[in-house]
């Protein structure tokens, strides 16, 4: 008789958007398909390498652990395929697979790395950068502290200072 009649509504910081989940799952599928195609090309490029018994030297060896990549649509969890070099006797001669789509160190897309410092600077002038970043990327987005974004901005300035000046400008 003491049943609760309280209906759970959306949380305070949660954005209720019916398009986000299908878009995020579509982005996950696209990234996963692109990585699988890149991995298949890697295996094909090493297909001529064989062990003395005639079997392939480079083989698929499962996936790395799933990790979230922060994208414009929000966090998307992806798993990178792994390769195993069965013919290498030392670490120096081992052939390793390194994805160009999802480097080992990547946690965000490049477009977000460019966008975050600009949003941060805009937020500093208005005093509400954390609110803007939370609305854009979600409350659980990692590495969005002022110190991290300021360090990225400084790194961007150093890189642009080292870039050659275009004579046509």
UniProtKB/TrEMBL annotation:
GO terms for molecular function: DNA binding; transposase activity. Keywords: DNA recombination, DNA-binding, Transposable element, Transposition. The keyword Ion transport does not apply. The keyword DNA-binding applies. GO terms for biological process: DNA transposition. It comes from the Bacteria. Required for the transposition of the insertion element. Belongs to the transposase mutator family. This is Mutator family transposase.
